[in-house]
Amino acid sequence: MDAINALWIMVSAALVLLMVPGLALFYGGMGRSKNMLNMLMMNVICLGIVPVVWITVGYSLSSNGGEGTSQWIGNLDSAFLNDVPLVDGTESPLLLVFFALTFASITPALISGAVADRMKFSAWVAFVPIWLLVVFVPAWAWVFRSNGFLQARGSLDFAGGTVVHVAAGAAALALVTVLGNRRGWPEEPMPPHNLPFTMIGAGLLWFGWFGFNAGSALAVDGVAVQAFVNTFIAGAVAMLSWLIVERMMDGHATSLGAASGIVAGLVAITPGAGFMGTWGAAFVGLIAGAACALAVRAKFKLGYDDAFDVVGVHLIGGLIGGILIGLVADSSVFGEVNEANDGLFAGGGPDLLIEQIFANVFVLLFSFVATFIIAHVIKATIGLRVSDSDETVGLDSAQHAESAYS
């Protein structure tokens, strides 16, 4: 086994794991104090549920099987990690299983920010494993398996822009559609109660995202270095882009805007981090920061209560990043010429752009419809939303019998 590469993947997996509590702080600070612990729990519980689902059947269905097997889903040959070796040549298949597991863990956690303040915790505990198996696992199989439906068509996704952010963002939109708006929204002001937490969360997310993107190279090489640099640049440029839009429209730049801009840039660069150069990443960050800043305002006009802007940042940011690959991907950055992986600006034809649009729209529609059905099933069985009295008192007390602040 290549020890240096194995060490890098282990470090990267730990960095991605850190993103879950980072996300919990990012979301928690944006909410009201009476729901702080509930938001932390909605994120942390994913670190308990998802690993169990993943090592039993999730990994096998998402990743097992190659040529000659279904393009749509894997098989159960590796259920319960059956025949997954510790070492195989220069790689560790077992390590790769757990690196992918960290991605699987944070993806449903992203959705939690949209449904804040009003979803039953028991409904969330039921939703996470169902959504993982019905939506995330097939999407992973389509995008990352060698003969997966979307990969076979020629679409690119370096670190999970389509599988993670577009899928989670579309699911968030479907879930809030079924769940309904918070009591009093949008007439009643619901400002963030602890923006320092949100800023700390954004910092932890940025730190962890280096493992998310650069770790997806699965080796210590030039692709990992470029993905590392791109992750830094896209986050920085998107923050500035968001703040410029905010300053032009509202007359001031906010700490919430800075934190949200950073995350928007990180989301957008994720699918193309290892397919473009530094200036391509800057372009992606520039577009994503401005577009997401505008997108988060749309919820007030359209009337859907996405509490912490999961749709505006993750769905829109993921779509922008995935589609812009078709414009700015540049294989020459990595010392090769591969027109199939070159965007229009790098001399490639329109095929890659078309495939990027198709793949992202396909996953968006699939995730939205599947999540809409899952939400209605849960609503009709155990119930989806807390009572009006619980929502008024706060979910920390009503759902967990605790308080974040004395």
Topology, pairings included?
Elements lengths: L2 H28 L5 H9 L1 H18 L29 H19 L9 H24 L4 H5 L7 H19 L15 H20 L7 H29 L4 H15 L8 H18 L2 H5 L7 H19 L22 H31 L6 H6 L1 H6 L6
Helix pairs in contact: 1-2, 1-4, 1-8, 3-4, 3-5, 4-5, 4-7, 5-7, 5-14, 7-13, 7-14, 8-9, 8-10, 9-10, 9-11, 10-11, 10-13, 11-13, 13-14
Protein architecture, described:
The chain is an all-alpha fold. The protein has a single domain (about 5-400), classed as Ammonium transporter AmtB like domains (Ammonium transporter fold, Orthogonal Bundle). Helix content is about 65%, strand content about 0%. The chain has helices at about 5-30, 35-45, 45-65, 95-110, 120-145, 150-155, 160-180, 195-215, 220-250, 255-270, 280-295, 300, 310-330, 350-380, 390-395, 395-400. It is globular. It starts with a helix and ends in a 6-residue tail after the last helix.
CATH superfamily heading: Ammonium transporter AmtB like domains
**Per CATH, what is the topology?**
Ammonium transporter fold
Our Rg estimate from Cα atoms comes to 20 Å
What is the averaged pLDDT score? Answer: 96
CATH architecture: Orthogonal Bundle
**Class, according to the CATH hierarchy?**
Mainly Alpha
The number of distinct structural domains comes to: 1
Low-confidence stretches: none
Helix-strand pattern: HHHHHHHHHHHHHHHH
Continuous helix count: 16
- How big a fraction of the residues is strand? under 5%
The percent of residues in helical segments reads: 55-70%
Number of strands: 0
Shape: globular
Spatial gap, N to C terminus: 52 Å
